[in-house]
Design goal:
Elements lengths: L10 E8 L4 E8 L7 E11 L1 H8 L8 E2 L5 E8 L11 E3 L3 E2 L5 H4 L10 E2 L11 E5 L4 E2 L6 H21 L8 E4 L3 H13 L4 E5 L2 H9 L4 E4 L5 H8 L5 E6 L4 H9 L1 E9 L12 H7 L2 E4 L5 H12 L9 E6 L3 H9 L7 E5 L1
Helix pairs in contact: 3-4, 3-9
């Protein structure tokens, strides 16, 4: 059954980040128009991610002088660009948060998923802290009817990035002993996903007692403070002496990388998911060579990962009902940013609702 096209005004409210001054402003701007192969999406919810904050504070270099931020979007298709026939007005979707450059050597070989110069939504082109956003029709994921759009928005990075870290980079499987350093937004989902993948035991490590309690409630077998002098001994005891097969560093600082490496079994691997400007400096060449330890960097996800997660949500295999810590209206975007910056109420994910 077709749905009549909704009435769309000429302008919309959007957050705008100005790179030169690092200012975040709310402005009325023209509603974008979908080009060939694109759709216009009315944003229902969009997440506030630490990478958004990294652009604001200058840790991520700006790609364009002015951009609308927000890359964790879920919403409804309201207009079709020329040539789009796989979507209909009224479809609920999650847009992919990246566009291949089409110029690098991998793109020229047709390996678009491994683009070397990926253009990211909210960094290289306008994102979802706005009433509407344009997305390529190819790469959008359909939201199942029984999945709330607020939870669907979490899939576009907040859950898909840790999913890809667990399944694709670390290849966690049944029986792997797993440690997770930093159980905030990403780390909390790492706990849930490593449990789903069969990790045992799962050990959460953090300096925040409330975050550790939450990790236990969501599936961690143990929760230890990172500043505990007996941390290593406790991990030895928890794993029966075999140490960790996989350790995720969701913080991304030198201290957490060192702790994670120090608690690996031989042939164990650390997956860095968190990011900072600090150096890894995680141990000696002797340790890595003799015990064959590894460190692997991880970033992002594949588009099909969002579809897998949407099905897991739809079938009740994954529960994200507790992952939405707060919802703020777009008009209060500054408050939402501050809540994440200051970790007010220890959020997993804060959503913006235009």
């Amino acid at each position: 059954m077709s749905i009549d096209a909704p009435v769309i005004g000429d302008t919309m409210l959007a957050e705008r980040f100005y790179a030169a001054t690092r200012e975040v402003k709310l402005e009325e701007i023209p509603v974008p128009q979908p080009g060939p192969g694109e759709v216009l999406i009315k944003v229902a919810y969009c997440g506030i991610c630490h990478s958004d904050l990294s652009l604001i504070d200058g840790n991520f270099p700006a790609r364009v002088p002015v951009v609308t931020q927000g890359h964790e979007v879920a919403g409804t298709v309201v207009k079709l660009g020329p040539g789009v026939n796989q979507w209909q007005i009224g479809d609920k979707v999650i847009p992919s948060a990246g566009r291949a450059c089409l110029k690098c050597r991998n793109c020229q070989r047709g390996n678009f998923a491994a683009c070397l110069n990926l253009n990211l939504m909210a960094f290289a082109y306008d994102g979802g802290w706005a009433e509407y956003v344009v997305s390529g029709a190819v790469g959008c994921t359909r939201v199942p009817d029984n999945v709330p759009l607020a939870q669907a928005a979490l899939l576009a990075d907040a859950v898909s990035t840790p999913f890809a870290a667990v399944v694709r980079t670390a290849k966690v499987h049944l029986g792997n002993a797993v440690g997770i350093w930093g159980v905030g937004g990403v780390g909390t989902h790492l706990v849930q996903l490593t449990k789903l993948a069969g990790g045992v035991p799962i050990i959460a490590v953090d300096i925040n007692d409330a975050a550790l309690e939450r990790a236990l409630a969501l599936g961690a077998d143990y929760a230890f403070r990172s500043d505990d002098p007996a941390l290593h001994d406790k991990i030895v005891e928890a794993t029966g002496g075999r140490m960790l097969d996989v350790a995720f560093d969701a913080v991304g600082i030198t201290a957490t990388a060192r702790q994670a490496v120090a608690n690996l079994d031989s042939f164990g691997q650390v997956i860095t998911v968190g990011m900072s400007a600090q150096n890894i400096d995680a141990g000696s060449f002797m340790e890595f060579s003799l015990l064959r330890k590894q460190i692997k960097g991880h970033l992002g996800y594949q588009v099909q990962d969002i579809q897998i997660l949407a099905e897991l949500l739809s079938r009740g295999r994954l529960d994200l009902s507790g992952s939405i810590s707060a919802v703020v209206p777009l008009s209060e975007i500054h408050r939402g940013i501050e809540m994440l910056e200051k970790k007010i109420d220890n959020p997993i994910r804060i959503l913006v609702q235009p």
